[in-house]
Amino acid sequence: MKGTKFPIWSQHNLGRDRKSAGSVTYRRLAVAAIVCATAVVVWWFASTPVLLHTHILTKPDYRSWGAYNEEGTGVTILNPFRSRVAERVAEAFLRDASSGECSPEMSEGLCGAVKRRPLPAADWRLVYRRNIGNDIYVFYRLRQASQQCVMAMVRLKQNGASWKISAYGLSY
């Protein structure tokens, strides 16, 4: 018995077990922190329609727009996880407005304006979107045969579960 050692029960090994138990706790905390940070980033991505809008990488040509247009110029990266319901309503409005027809989402005054002056394009591309409270502003770059740059802004207001067109404007 004199030369028998029990390394499992020695004080030295008990200290190692405590250290490894502590490192497991720190690892768990680190994993929990990473999971929480990932959840916050995903929530942020899902809550904003525009991830990036900058003018750093572009040279704005003021002459082609007639005037500087903050929303229509620059580089915009839209959030792929955003809700597109309001954009679909706005695009249906633009489709009807290009043919001079009224859509159910329009007010009578807006319908009269669209009938008098139809949208001067048959094709458009979403370039920017801004959410302010219950209002959504969507900006489209219109493509015309004349190659003139025209921006269309459609303002939508939430009405319960649906969206109504509350304003429309063009910028030449």
In words, what does this structure look like?
The N and C termini lie far apart (99 Å). The radius of gyration is 29 Å and the shape is elongated. About 4% of the residues have low confidence. The protein is of the alpha+beta class and 172 residues long. The protein has 2 domains: 47 residues; 123 residues, Nuclear Transport Factor 2, Chain: A (Roll). 37% of the residues lie in helices and 28% in strands. The protein has a 4-stranded antiparallel sheet with strand order 3-4-5-6, with helices on one face. The longest helix is centred in the first third of the chain and has 37 residues.
- Total DSSP helices: 4
- Work out the radius of gyration: 29 Å
Report the uncertain regions. 62-68
Strand content: 25-35%
What does the overall shape look like?
elongated
How would you classify the helix and strand content by structural class?
Answer: alpha+beta
Count structural domains: 2
Give the distance, in angstroms, between the N- and C-terminal Cα atoms.
Answer: 99 Å
CATH topology of the largest domain: Nuclear Transport Factor 2, Chain: A
CATH A-level architecture of the largest domain: Roll
Give the total of beta strands.
6
Give the ordered list of helices and strands.
HEHEHHEEEE
Mean pLDDT: 76
Sheet with the most strands: spatial strand order: 3-4-5-6
Share of helix among residues? 25-40%
- Main beta-sheet strand count, sense and barrel state: 4 strands, antiparallel
> CATH first level of the largest domain: which class?
Alpha Beta
How would you concisely characterize the structure shown here?
By secondary structure, this protein is α+β, with helices and mostly antiparallel strands. It is built from 4 helices and 6 strands, in the order αβαβααββββ.
